[in-house]
Amino acid sequence: MSQLYHVLYCSRNKIPGVAEVMVDNIANILEKSRRNNARDGITGGLLFSEGCFAQVLEGSVDLVESAFERIQCDARHSDVTVLEARTITSRDFPQWSMGFAGSTDADHRFGSLALATAFTANSGRGIALMDLLKSVVKRETEWLTTVPQ
Predict the structure, then answer these.
(1) What backbone torsions phi and psi does residue 147 show, to the nearest 5 degrees?
(2) pLDDT at residue number 11
(3) pTM given for the model
(4) CATH number of the domain residue 54 falls in
(5) Residue 73: which residues within 8 A CB-CB, separation 6 or more?
(6) Does the structure show a pLDDT above 50 at 21?
(7) Using an 8 Å Cβ cutoff, are 82 and 7 in contact?
(8) C-alpha distances in angstroms, 144 versus 28, 30, 35, 51, 112?
(9) Which phi and psi angles does 106 have, rounded to 5°?
(10) Would you give the DSSP letter of residue 123?
(11) Which of 42, 26, 22, 24 is nearest to 101 (CA)?
């Protein structure tokens, strides 16, 4: 079995348009990502705020690198910035083919700040984004387990 690996990156949205169009585009991105990631055994989280994305992908080296290559070639992304790429011993998002938090989330202010600093030379930028993604997905997981079906 291949070693576990993760890539944490941020990028800017290149799709101009009104908020309604962006919501549809995000929904399409999530639908396709969740389907592909489930197929490839990739887990992770995605944060979108103020026209920027932060995402972590985790899984086998080959499949994560392949997924990330598709992202880098996607015309909807610009300024793709890798914050961290390394082998890991366990997944941070084991139950999520792609957890998501958007700009309407309660963490909007913090997401915007974390994303804004991710594009700078600040050495803690990856840590701050990873912590934010973990906290949002943890909160979402807790919410989903308490909602009656």
Answers:
(1) -80, 125
(2) 86
(3) 0.72
(4) 3.30.70.100
(5) none
(6) no
(7) yes
(8) 22, 18, 20, 26, 24
(9) -60, -25
(10) T
(11) 26
The two structure tokens encoding residue 26: 């995000």
- Count the residues in the chain: 149
Q: Are the C-beta atoms of 43 and 107 separated by less than 8 Å?
A: no
Q: Is the pLDDT of residue 104 over 70?
A: no
In the DSSP assignment, the letter for residue 98 is S
Which pLDDT tens digit goes with each residue over 23-79?
667 778 788 888 999 999 999 888 877 777 888 999 999 999 999 999 899 887 888
Residue type (1 letter), 124: G
Q: Checking phi first, is residue 125 left (phi over 0); if not, alpha (psi -120 to 50) or beta?
A: alpha
Amino acid at site 117: T
Question: For residue 80, what are the contacts with CB-CB under 8 A and spacing of at least 6?
Answer: 9, 10, 11, 71, 72
Total domain count for the chain? Answer: 1
- DSSP letters, 37-89, are HHHHT-EEEEEEETTEEEEEEEEEHHHHHHHHHHHHH-TTEEEEEEEEEEE-S
Domain holding 63, by residue range, is 4-146
